[in-house]
Design goal:
alpha+beta; 8-stranded mixed β-sheet; 6-stranded antiparallel β-sheet; 16 helices; 580 residues; Rossmann fold; 28% helix; Immunoglobulin-like; globular; disordered N terminus
Length: 580
């Protein structure tokens, strides 16, 4: 039976898996780049004369003639969720609703087509292909040579394939940056996907002088659907468990499983932290299950399995279709003058995602615009963390945050002895089972007595070590952590939970883009916001901060970027001190 497990972990045959995975992929991946951006925050107020008031942000948009035969309303619109009577009973098996949502969204942005032909079809000879970096059009929505500081620069992307054909579907994943290297200024753009091959990108005009706009096509819609259909519904390969008793040692294959069946395996269950996911290992020949000593998740195994999986779809990750600048960029705009500085809310939980997260005023200083922030001096930092107790849980990116706290503060006064490394992680070294602690258990271990002595600040990261997990296993885990956060708030009403979201990373080759590329990390951020929204956690979103910095994107950014992330965290930990 143990030898059959790898085939049964997927528990679907290839044909049925493709059908079911397609629905899963469409649910999570098709309506790309629209869910998280809170398009309802773009308030358009039209007066009787047909113009828009100054309250409109970003630059007001009406109707745009994109080509002689194509029109689109460049106007973010809310999509009301469609409710079904049996949703109250179960959501399982309703992933196809995501396809309906996509169709509803795109239809609101399409100009009525009509049919003026008597024949049932319009017949022509033609070809269609993926979105092309060479043929895709990019242009300013408004014919402006100059903008003022405080404006939003509005850029339109009209996706075309290599044959020059207009794409009729959305879903491409773009990474836009506006910058001036000489001035050391930069900011990331906010993308709105209308579902019909047309996109708007908004950049905050944060400095005076020239600004250059680069837009990278990171993944096409088809590449994303492949990731969601063929990769992310599967459980992660490459686990090895080592069992030790006395001088005897045995190693077997292990698996993280949220769906499937197995017999006579060693099961390791933690409903509190993993929910419906189990960690199972093939039984060793002589040793009992309770002798499991260490776990290793080999990245080499992940890479080899990924290379096999993409052997037939290399064109999805070929030049011109992924990780390439659109050839019509860079665009250049000129910024002058200034407007009134926007009034920002205090940092806190469940803030709306604005049209800009902020900008780099130089290569060392990030100015946040989600909420009010400051650069914290040594004295202010110490005053902020007085009677605060920091607890850190996550991977190596969280270790770097811990090191930054050590550089900026007296570690012994404010931090736990060390941050808790994520359990069941990817890495080159085995993880001792005896030293593992899940984030849910860590939060549950914070007592009411600890909370009485000061404010507990729990900072956690759920990202890079989970990129190979199936979406269901990942959702089980973060939902379990959500329940632990709720319990913490009930015990300790003054406690804070900060979630440091994922950042874009180096995408060096197709296998790496597939098993842990930017799209997967970005989608994980969307899942985190959806699961944890509304309970009082504070989201530390560093995506735009990292994307727009002149350093190459990397899992591990430089210390100056990490320090700015800690500065941002302080804005959330002590929001009342920002204006002092």
């Amino acid at each position: 039976m143990a030898n059959m497990l790898p085939a049964r972990v997927g528990f679907f045959n290839k044909k049925s898996a493709t059908v079911i995975a397609f629905c899963l992929g469409m649910f999570f991946g098709a309506v790309v780049y629209t869910q998280i951006f809170e398009t309802k925050t773009i308030t358009l107020k039209e007066n009787r004369e047909g113009s828009f008031s100054e309250e409109t942000k970003p630059t007001p948009v009406r109707r745009l003639n994109l080509s002689p035969n194509c029109k689109a309303d460049i106007h973010p619109q809310e999509v009301s969720p469609v409710r079904f009577p049996y949703n109250e009973y179960t959501r399982f098996g309703l992933e196809w609703t995501g396809i309906v949502d996509e169709l509803e969204w795109s239809s609101k942005s399409l100009h009525p087509i009509g049919n003026d032909d008597a024949q049932p079809f319009r017949i022509r000879a033609g070809s269609a292909d993926l979105t092309s970096t060479e043929k895709t059009r990019v242009f300013l929505y408004e014919d402006k040579a100059k903008y003022k500081i405080g404006d939003f620069v509005h850029v339109v992307i009209e996706a075309h394939d290599k044959y020059g054909g207009k794409r009729s579907k959305g879903g491409d994943f773009f990474e836009p940056v506006m910058f001036n290297e000489k001035l050391q200024k930069s900011t990331a753009g906010r993308v709105v996907d209308y579902g019909n091959g047309t996109y708007s990108v908004y950049f905050y005009a944060a400095w005076q002088g020239a600004a250059f706009i680069n837009i990278t096509l990171a993944f096409t819609r088809e590449a994303i659907l492949f990731l969601d259909n063929e990769i992310r519904y599967k459980e992660p390969p490459g686990w090895k468990g080592t069992f030790v008793q006395g001088n005897t040692s045995e190693s077997t294959e292990c698996y993280v499983i949220s769906d499937g069946s197995w017999e006579d395996m060693c099961e390791f269950i933690n409903h509190n932290a993993l929910g419906g996911t189990a960690f199972v290992c093939e039984k060793p020949q002589t040793l009992p299950c309770n002798t499991l000593d260490s776990i290793l998740h080999s990245i080499d195994k992940v890479v080899s399995v990924t290379e096999e999986g993409i052997a037939d779809i290399r064109p999805l990750f070929s030049k011109g279709h992924y990780r390439g600048l659109l050839e019509e960029t860079p665009l250049k705009v000129q910024i002058s003058g200034s407007k009134e500085t926007p009034k920002l809310p205090r940092c806190g939980p469940d803030l709306k995602v604005p049209m800009t997260d902020g900008y780099w005023s130089d290569n060392l200083t990030f100015v946040p615009m989600v909420c009010r922030g400051r650069q914290w001096t040594q004295n202010k930092r110490e005053a902020c963390l007085k009677s605060k107790y920091i607890r850190l849980s996550g991977g190596s990116t969280m270790r770097h945050v811990s090191e930054a706290f050590s550089r900026l503060f007296d570690r012994s006064r404010h931090l736990d002895k060390t941050h808790k490394f994520v359990a069941l992680r990817i890495g080159p070294y085995p993880q001792l089972v005896s030293s593992m602690q899940f984030e849910s258990d860590y939060m549950d271990g914070i007592t009411t007595d600890e909370c009485k002595t000061g404010t507990v600040v729990f900072i956690v990261n759920f990202s890079f070590h989970f990129v190979t997990w199936s979406k269901r296993s990942y959702l089980y885990r973060i939902h379990s952590a959500k329940l632990a956060a709720v319990r913490l708030f009930q015990r300790c009403p003054d406690a804070m939970v900060l979630i440091r979201l994922s950042n874009p990373r180096e995408n060096v080759n197709p296998p790496q883009c597939v098993h842990s590329g930017d799209w997967i990390l970005y989608d994980m951020n969307r899942m985190i916001r959806r699961v944890f929204g509304g309970i009082g956690v504070r989201f530390i979103d560093v995506w735009d901060m990292v994307l727009s910095h002149p350093d190459p994107n990397n899992v591990h950014m430089g210390p100056h970027v990490i320090d700015q992330q800690v500065q941002m965290m302080l804005n959330y930990i002590c929001p009342g001190m920002v204006d002092l």
